[in-house]
Amino acid sequence: SSESCRSVLKTPLKQAATSHGVLAELQPDCQPLTTPPKPTETLPADPWTPTSNLKMLISAASPEIRSREQRRELSDHTREGLQARHCVQEHLSGDEYEKSQPSRKEKSLGLLCHKFLARYPDYPSTAENNYICLDEVAEELNVERRRIYDIVNVLESLHMVSRLAKNRYAWHGRHNLPKTLQALKKVGEKNKYTQQIQMIKKREYEQEFDLDGDRNEEVARSFGSNKHSEMSFVELPGMEFRAASVNSRKDKSLRVMSQKFVMLFLVSTPQIVSLEIAAKILIGEEQLEDLDKSKFKTKIRRLYDIANVLSSLELIKKVHVTEERGRKPAFKWTGPEVSPNTQDTKLERTSTTCPPPISESIPSKEQCSKNLFPSRGKQNFTRHPSLIKLVKSIEDDRRKVQSAPTSPVKISASTDQNLSAFPRKTAQVPAIAKHQLEGQSKKEKEMKVKLSRSALECHQSLPAAVPTPEAPGSAAPSQPPGVCPPGHSPVSPVMLPHPHCGVSYAIYLHPSQAPTLTTYSPSFMLQPLPGANVAGMKSINPKLLGRVTAEEGDSQLAPEDPTKSLTAKERSPVKATTSSQRCLKRSQPLQENNLIKRYRSEEEIPDTSLTFFPSGYLIPLTQCAHGSKAGVPKEKAGLCSLHHTTYSSPVAGVIPVTAPELKAVNIPAFQITPLNIMLSPPPIAAAPLLSSSCLNSGNTSSARNLSSSVLNFTLQHIGLIPAGVQVPASPFLQHTPLSSQAANVNHSSENMNLQEEKASKNILQLPDRAGIPLQQGDHFLSPLQLSVPKEPQTVTENFFRTPGGPNTVSSAPADSDGTDRISQGTLYIPQRKLEVSED
DNA sequence: TGATCCCGCCAACGT
DNA sequence: ACGTTGGCGGGATCA
């Protein structure tokens, strides 16, 4: 249909190429109807010129309405409608004229994107060669080419298109989407976005209360330092086509930003990401510290651009998260759930699934060769803006290397074999795991020492460090005992030879992943596994979960999803997905360093998850088990099983935790974040112990008094508590912010243990019973403890709760409000009210 | 106002 | 040298 529209003349119009002047050219007549060539410009001066008419036409009838309509339904044919409309318009009078002007909305990128998408099928058959000529599209859509780039770049990030050559792109539609999302999710996990999100939230929280600035900074720093991936564009294995000649720059921020943005959704449990956080994380990679306002602002702008496109793709939708602070713009993932099905590895290349329309599908070999080319030197560098960065990264790498005892084993160095490699990977994994393990142990020691380092590292390291010998037994056999099954293991990085640069990648084969989500699963359990750890998830959720879930979230989510999914055009079953894509590769040559880093990180990661939790707090993770159900064969299964174990009531005392359990727990720890834990002042049964003093006094001073153990305890709790939860003004916090302050306090406190440090870093560790202070902790019983919710489960549940009500396996049966339960325990966790509202 | 984000300058790149 | 890409941020709109 749209085609029909196309204007005949495109050529001349070429529009925009450069700015304005062009418009004049429009020949009014040209547009026989269809596309008016560049309507836009409009010099104010000649409103009535033919051109202007065009404009008007376009803008035509109530734009708003129109836009809405369009949005609602795709609009597709919007254009035509417009045209029709304009007829109507003609009679506009002056004032109306104003109205008629193309409202901004009409020109929105989102709308434009809809139009763009309307031109191509979601699932193009291979046969048709869908290639996109930017110029044509720009003309047809009457927009500057610049705008098309914005769209295409985002689409490219999702591998919905790929660049063939100059001005030319191949349309793949959504065939690759599943793979892409899967790949992005993995990378997101690897990057620990979950934790980062938590960290940011925590920081915000702290800042609110002006808790300790110091700490914040520290956190920030650590955060910044975290290696996470530099930006590299995530490519799909099969998709690398880009013509060697063409593809030059790989990094490209918009593309990369888009991918990262998507990653955030994929790793977040409530799948809701606020722009603010997204911007911070994206910026953060390099340096958080410079809060640089303008930079932040710019980032936000870009995110809007990306969000508009993603919205058009129906992958996300705008919502508002209302917190105490106020309402913040955010987006909710409405795209398909990403199933971490790792295993498919065996598949061959995608070709089956989606053969790239164009010839492009090249056999691996060819690809390799191509890839090689690009990798060539300087270019990469060229664009790379910050040398500094490089340096940094290098250093990091170095560090990492050092620190990391074991580098992941690189398996095949040879390039081509990828294919062959894949299959192997699986097999290899175990072996690798061992290596890692070994390495880890070493690392552990180191790590401890290093704790000071970046938080992330710390996290990572810690786990390993932890003594928890116990783990072994519990853990799945396959996994190495030392390692926490959960976190780490999941990720066993396998290095794959990378065709492209010759660089090898580490691939995560995470056994766990596979099982992980089945679908929408609430995932709680699952998700965390991979990189982030359960904890991360939990923590994250908490905030959001709070209300979001319950409220709008549920309603929306559940129902919607299905719908949406359906909505999307019928998706072809394509998903076969299985292909081996797991390998993400980074194209950038430079990245090698990064790769290294990553490895490290990966390795380390495990640790993170591990954390020790000593004591007993466990938070019940029940769900895990459930989640795992079907799919889970692998390790995960094991994990899951572990998880389900769950709870101990803190109150009760500590329950011995098994290793697995620990893991589950640990995470949360990290993110203490927002903690707004409040004691509910009036909490009902305040737990027995609540010492009024603590609560009341809330003074910091009192807090300080707490023994470190107590602190730990607190922290733990905090961790437990849904991070998300913020207590607004809760009195309690105000007085003494447990969480953050606590951290501070700890420092001061006599015992600074590693743990504490860790905690400070973000990781919360539970005091190890055995070793530590807890016992010493006289205060153990301190009110805080008391405060601990008796029923951990409840808490947990809350955490876990996934938005999609049903999904939540774990969650307690509908308790709508976690709070209540909590109240039982002394600890009152204020749930932040998050409300998600749509536009 | 603050949230959105269009617009298009202009630099990095490619050819 | 010129065309293509696309980073970036002013400032107009919208809500």
Automatic annotation (TrEMBL):
Alphabetical UniProt keywords: Activator, Cell cycle, DNA-binding, Nucleus, Repressor, Transcription, Transcription regulation
UniProt GO molecular function: DNA-binding transcription factor activity, RNA polymerase II-specific; RNA polymerase II cis-regulatory region sequence-specific DNA binding
Sequence segments annotated as region (Disordered): 1-51, 63-85, 331-368, 396-415, 464-483, 551-587, 801-824
GO cellular component entries: RNA polymerase II transcription regulator complex
Location of the protein in the cell: Nucleus
UniProt keyword Ion transport, yes or no: no
Keyword Coiled coil on entry: no
Compositional bias per record (Basic and acidic residues), positions renumbered to this chain: 65-85, 561-573
Polar residues composition bias: residue spans: 575-587, 801-813
Pfam families, alphabetized: WHD_E2F_TDP
GO biological process: negative regulation of DNA-templated transcription; positive regulation of macromolecule metabolic process; positive regulation of nucleobase-containing compound metabolic process; sprouting angiogenesis
SMART domains, per database record: E2F_TDP
Location (main, coarse): nucleus
Domain E2F/DP family winged-helix DNA-binding, chain residue ranges per copy: 104-173, 249-335
PANTHER family (UniProt xref): TRANSCRIPTION FACTOR E2F, TRANSCRIPTION FACTOR E2F8
Family: Belongs to the E2F/DP family.
Name of the protein described by the UniProt record: Transcription factor E2F8
Source organism: Eurystomus gularis
Lineage of source species: Eukaryota, Metazoa, Chordata, Craniata, Vertebrata
GN (gene name): E2f8
